[in-house]
Design brief:
The protein is mainly β. It contains no helices and 24 strands.
């Protein structure tokens, strides 16, 4: 069995997402016209596992085009996939987050049923969910003017995995220069990381096609009200950004998962291998997360593709 691996794991491989359940990793990336699902027992082998297409976009309609950023989650014993789509005509203002449901224990079996789109107050993309204190919350990137045309992060409570039950509360909008690179002011790709009695809302900032696409972070205590913007502290600098020395540009749109033995935290993200390489060259990469003495994550710098990386613990 191999003891090391090299990034990238999938090329191309934009908007990667990994969900670990009972020792199995489920993996998804943007495919633009369909939703593919992988499953495998090793994190470093996520792109080498079994895979199948679980949904294909219709020829026309509100979710026929631009199928982006799929995420698979398990809630109350059922599987859900969240993905962004639009009608192919209205561009950003027609983007919505759609939901599929599967009741089978194995998401490769059973039937994926369309539950429609999440009833967000704003057109948007990159929807994710998390469970906290017995409730389910939805976070997404909603379009607007923040302060230039772009997107900001909203949170809302859910009454079920496809329906919001309350107001959409603004948590973060672009306000720093590093959130406005590439011609638009962007906060997108939100995802939650929990550890050390804290919640970390990690998101992508600036445009995905520019070198300076990076990760920002909001932090709160797990006893505070996550719906209150004042509960969250926003980092004034990126927590993960390009490494010219390592030849890694535009690192972002990430997810988090555990090593097979649950002792390590890993980040899954995409990046571009050269300056101004373009969004079509985004590839899937992973690396281990370290932790600071104050209980916050230390993502380090994106690792070079020439560096052998020790496989996750337990592989």
């Amino acid at each position: 069995m191999k003891s090391t691996f090299h990034n990238p794991l999938l090329n191309p491989g934009a908007d990667p997402w990994v969900y670990k359940d009972n020792g199995t990793y489920y993996f998804m990336v943007t495919k633009k016209t369909r939703l593919d699902l992988w499953k495998v027992n090793t994190l470093s082998g996520i792109a080498d596992g079994d895979w199948k297409t679980i949904w294909t976009a219709p020829a026309e309609g509100i979710n026929c085009a631009n199928i982006w950023a799929p995420e698979i989650h398990r809630v109350n014993g059922k599987w859900y996939v969240y993905f962004t789509a639009n009608d192919g005509k209205g561009d950003d203002q027609t983007r919505k987050v759609f939901v599929l449901e599967n009741q089978a224990r194995d998401p490769f079996k059973g039937e994926w049923l369309e539950k429609g789109y999440v009833n967000t107050e704003h057109p948007g993309l990159d929807g994710t969910i998390f469970e906290h204190q017995g409730r389910i919350y939805f976070v997404y990137a909603g379009y607007g003017n923040f302060p230039e045309y772009g997107s900001a992060l909203y949170i809302a409570e859910m009454e079920n995995p496809w329906t919001l039950s309350g107001p959409n509360v603004l948590l973060s909008k672009p306000e720093y220069d590093w959130e406005m690179k590439g011609g638009m002011a962007i906060n997108e790709g939100p995802v939650i990381l929990k550890r050390n009695n804290k919640l970390f809302l990690v998101y992508s900032a600036s445009t995905t096609w520019c070198d300076d696409y990076c990760l920002g972070m909001l932090t709160t205590s797990d006893v505070k009200n996550v719906m209150d913007p004042k509960s969250w502290d926003k980092a004034s600098e990126p927590v993960f950004k390009k490494s010219i020395e390592n030849g890694v540009f535009a690192p972002g749109h990430n997810g988090f998962t555990k090593s097979p033995d649950e002792t390590e935290d890993w980040i899954v993200y995409h990046a571009i291998p050269e300056s101004e390489g373009g969004s079509q060259r985004r590839s899937t990469r992973i690396q281990k997360i370290n932790w600071n003495s104050d209980g916050t994550p230390n993502f380090g710098v994106p690792l070079s593709t020439s560096v052998p990386i020790i496989v996750p613990s337990g592989e």
